[in-house]
Amino acid sequence: MKLSSFLHFASFGIKTVLLRKKEPILGTVIVTDKCNLHCKHCSVNNITAVVHPYEKVRKEMQTLYDLGVRILFFCGGETFLWRDGEKTLRDLVIEAKQMGFLIVNVVTNGTFPIDLPEADLILLSLDGDRERHNTIRGNTYDTILHNISKATADNICFYMAINQINKDCVDHVCRLARDTKNVRAVSFNFHTPYPDTKELALSREEKKACCDTISRMMDEGCPVFNLKSAFPYLIENKFPTPCHQCLVIEDGKISTCGRCIEVPGLCEQCGYFFVAEYTLLFRGNVKIILEMLKTYLKYI
Ligand SMILES: C[S@@+](CC[C@H](N)C(=O)[O-])C[C@H]1O[C@@H](n2cnc3c(N)ncnc32)[C@H](O)[C@@H]1O
Ligand code: SF4
Ligand code: SF4
Question: Which of 28, 33, 130, 147 has its CA 20 to 30 A from that of 54?
Fold first, then answer.
């Protein structure tokens, strides 16, 4: 990370903690909800299947920038399905950097060729070993690993949503992150139980077992882009929600934290690690602050 970016985030953090501010720093643009997959745990694909036009997406990026967002995510649906005429996702990433976003990340299912060296991180969903991943995501595991091997930069970070199907694959994905070319780390979430996927949620004991495994893997030298100090809060679902420093914009509509904020009762069962990590950070949790400094400087 550049020193100027680090100083911006440090000053934002200090102001937010000391003055209890609620201004945003992290934003997500949903470029489409269209998707080529129908994963078992996902409730947000192909609801409209509209691919938003370039001008609209650009305006949404500018809106987030003007609100103070400096860490930008492009997400979907399948993000790599986005295009408008000659413009591709890569153009959006380059434009976001030119606009002044300090960190620009993309979330993808990894089924399309990966040529996005300008992105700081490509969060690529991998949901277990071949058997469990394919059970959740269809027959895509081998295609994804092939695309990773051919990627044009080493900016990939696995992204695993842990649920009832793949809860025993945490160590597999950690080791694969350590041993696979072009992969820098792995980042986890627990399944967030939307009304149509409640049966995939983990119990408190199952979350604890997963966190114990992740900690053990970190001790073994596996690159995990999460904060150990947030695990106790994630296990008990005892972290503040929603994240006021996070915004998402989809089809012109801005929501605080996630699209899921509209689902009644979901925030109390939130499994998104970034929510725990950011809300605890901005409450001034000292262990989280120190671990975040160490982790972010290592992986971005
Ligand atoms: C909605 S997808 C969009 C980007 C891309 N299509 C992908 O699969 O990475 C973003 C991430 O959300 C995760 N996800 C979907 N539904 C979830 C849920 N109910 N709880 C936790 N994570 C979920 C997916 O596994 C994926 O890692
Ligand atoms: S690939 Fe992503 S958006 Fe598509 S169904 Fe799976 S999790 Fe949902
Ligand atoms: S806290 Fe609520 S809005 Fe935020 S990600 Fe979790 S469920 Fe969604």
Answer: 147
